[in-house]
Design a protein that fits this description.
The chain starts with 5 loop residues before the first strand and ends in a 14-residue tail after the last strand. Strand 7 and strand 8 (155-158) form a beta hairpin. It has 420 residues and is α+β, with helices and mostly antiparallel strands. Strands 3-2-1-4-5 form a 5-stranded parallel beta sheet, sandwiched between helices. It has a 5-stranded antiparallel beta sheet with strand order 12-15-18-23-20. The longest helix is centred in the middle third of the chain and has 19 residues, at 239-257. The chain contains 13 helices and 24 strands. Helix 6 packs across helix 9 (239-257). Bound molecules: adenosine monophosphate and glycine.
Length: 420
């Protein structure tokens, strides 16, 4: 098997912190750009504007890396993977064209229709008249989605017709060529399944569940994700095989046959509805915070899988091995997240928390100033607890959070509660 010498990891969130730890545990040398303060000891960090694909390609060249791994969606949709590959360097991440599976919900719906993949019925609207008629057609609860990337804030699910209409109006005004997707409401628990693919072969990772709403009991606004856990003891037998057979493989095959091969990570967000499984959304990259839970359970090296996906050789690589242990991830968010997170508050107790057995504290929105750790983003840290089952893992994660202080911070207290 190819011996990876050096990887450039692009991104700065807790997802990238988890990716870094997994890559290093597998024996790879990693440099990060821009990374975060939690990564400083493990990897050289380079400043970088992640939305600049040429700058990513330049750095990959000057650092002589063998593989670039792109974490966030924005550079992918902007063509960063294409820019890297144009320099003859392997890149884990789809082309700009293929990343439209995440970058345009209307495009994703087209692909799903062509591939026969089950998803919510939807209408793509380009003006308010179409919006009103779609809202009439589907009825409450209303589901209104910005067609384009919106950093986890593009979707509103509400019983309030006025709020639904207003959100649609905002989405329509946001971009030049605006579209908004109005769709059928899907009931049932949600599952996130990630699959690594080279455009032909599909390797599913372990499923996880994400908590998108800000507050306990799913109250409050949608966020980037407030917590996650894996495995899902309540999931039906054969769920992963079913999702691969009915969702992931048909989508990957369709994209390839349409001349837009998707290589990288396909993230399927699914609802297990009373009428069977349905795709809620596709993303073109690892999810945050599910990645922190999933990778905590990975026992085999991550680098060779990503390299094989990037070079069309995934069929030759042994499948990943997983721990039977559970992982629970709780996100610590700043005051006023997600609307207008307050920054610059001191964060204390991270070292004590991180030193606990079976706990890892991953950084996201943090910075160091005058030797103090300060909040510098909406999602500040994620705390990962591992244990023999979800209850144990949960206990460890919350015990670790007890050591961390951040003024007016927010976290959910019900992550993985009663899921054993
Ligand atoms: P998305 O960005 O499409 O994943 O949507 C964010 C969140 O909104 C999802 O994780 C769901 O919790 C919720 N959501 C999206 N679409 C639907 C739907 N059709 N029915 C019910 N909830 C949805
Ligand atoms: N956890 C949701 C996302 O990564 O989009």
């Amino acid at each position: 098997m190819f011996n990876i010498v050096k990887i450039l990891l692009v991104g700065s969130g807790a997802r990238e912190h988890a990716l870094l730890r997994a890559l290093i545990a597998g024996g790879d040398e990693v440099v990060v750009a821009p990374g975060n303060v939690g990564m400083t000891e493990a990897a050289a960090r380079f400043p970088l504007n992640v939305s600049d694909g040429q700058a990513i390609a330049d750095l990959a060249e000057t650092e002589s890396v063998d593989l670039v791994v792109i974490g966030p969606e924005l550079p992918l949709v902007n063509g960063a993977a294409d820019a890297v590959r144009a320099r003859g360097i392997a890149c884990f991440g789809p082309s700009a064209e293929a990343a439209l599976l995440e970058g345009s919900k209307a495009f994703a719906k087209q692909v799903m229709a062509a591939a026969g993949v089950p998803t919510a019925m939807a209408r793509v609207c380009t003006n308010q008249t179409e919006v009103e008629s779609a809202l009439d057609a589907f009825g409450p609860p209303f589901v209104v989605k910005d067609d384009g990337l919106a950093g986890g804030k593009g979707v509103v699910v509400t019983d309030d017709r006025r709020i639904a209409g207003e959100h649609a109006a905002v989405c329509l005004q946001r971009h030049g060529e605006a579209a908004v997707v109005i769709e059928e409401y899907l009931d049932g628990p949600e599952v996130s399944l990630f699959a690594i693919t080279d455009g032909v072969t599909v390797v599913p990772l372990q499923p996880a569940q994400d908590y998108k709403r800000l507050g306990d009991g799913d109250a409050g606004p949608n966020t980037g994700g407030m917590g996650a856990y894996s495995p899902l003891p309540w999931a039906p037998e054969g769920l992963v095989d079913d999702i691969v057979a009915r969702v992931i493989q048909p989508t990957i095959d369709r994209m390839r046959l349409d001349g837009v091969p998707f290589a990288g990570l396909l993230y399927a967000g699914l609802a297990l509805t009373s009428r069977g499984l349905r795709v809620v959304e596709f993303n073109a990259r690892f999810g945050d915070p599910e990645t922190q839970a999933v990778l905590a359970r990975l026992e085999s090296p991550l680098g060779p899988l990503l390299f094989a996906a990037a070079t069309g050789t995934l069929a030759e690589v042994a499948p990943p091995r997983w721990s039977n242990d559970a992982a629970v991830v709780v996100v610590l968010a700043a005051a006023n997240y997600p609307q207008a997170p307050r920054l610059g508050d001191e964060v204390c107790g991270v070292e004590q928390a991180d030193a606990l057995v079976d706990v890892a504290v991953l950084h996201a929105g943090t910075e160091v100033a005058d030797g103090r750790l300060l909040s510098a983003g909406g999602r500040v840290l994620t705390v990962v607890g591992c244990g023999a089952n979800l209850s144990d893992a949960r206990e460890r994660a919350y015990a670790a959070l007890d050591h961390i202080t951040l003024a007016d911070s927010q976290f959910r207290r019900d992550i993985a509660l009663n899921k054993d």
